[in-house]
Amino acid sequence: MGGARGTGGPSASTLLVGLAMMGACSSGPIALGRLEDTTTPALDSGTVSDSGGIPDASVDAALCDPPAPSRHYAFDGLGTEVIDLRGGPSGQVVGGATLDGSGVLRLDGVDDYVDLPNGILAGLTEVSVALWVRRLGGPGYTRLFDIGTGSLGEDPPAGASTVGRSYLAVTPGTGNVPSGLAVLMSAGGAPSEVVALSDVVLDQERRFVVVAVSNATVSLYYEGALVARVPRTVPLPSIVDHNAWLGRSQYSADPYLTAEYSDVRIWTMALPDCAVHKLHALGPDAR
To answer: What does pTM read for this prediction?
Structure first.
């Protein structure tokens, strides 16, 4: 859910920033999203080139080597247990979907979702979440992931009416402008929501989506390139992560997601732009 519905989007204008390096960026301006507040704080977006969101070549190359994630779910095996390849607690497939040995999990958009372990954000001041996912149509305000809690706390029963209280989430579409792929982050529901908007429309191909939350910014990447970045005004430790879901929202009015997941990784740091670009180049099968 998150944000106003059916009103044509919030009144705050979208911030468009054209970033360049050594001349004008040939790929045009990048939509960097906006805050729910009517004022727009200064944005430190760094230096982005026209080569797909990679920082300038003077950056230490070691910073661009992606470290091992703290959690890694690859959807191997059979049944409903989603094993963490890093040795942490498993997640569970809920709603009738099952792993079929293909390394891909398909959610039906009716009641299927993945319930990852609680505490993913516990003690963190920064985090990155990377997904290889194929969206198979459906309405806006579904969730690629939603980590947080709602008005009924942990694991509310299907059909119960809940609203989001605190969350870090990614949705394929919103009612805002632009209305594409977006990050939603709040510690007090929709009124205090930070939104990083983009005009990216997920097609029905497997795509790479990354969210990186640093001490200062919330960044959204698509196919290895930065597509949105806004100031982070919500402290990450203020998000209570009773629920960590793939395909389900903390808001019961939001639909379930119809999609296929093949890889989800989580880091306890904000990945730099160049590391995200490199992860995309390596692909979902690199371990």
So the answer is: 0.80
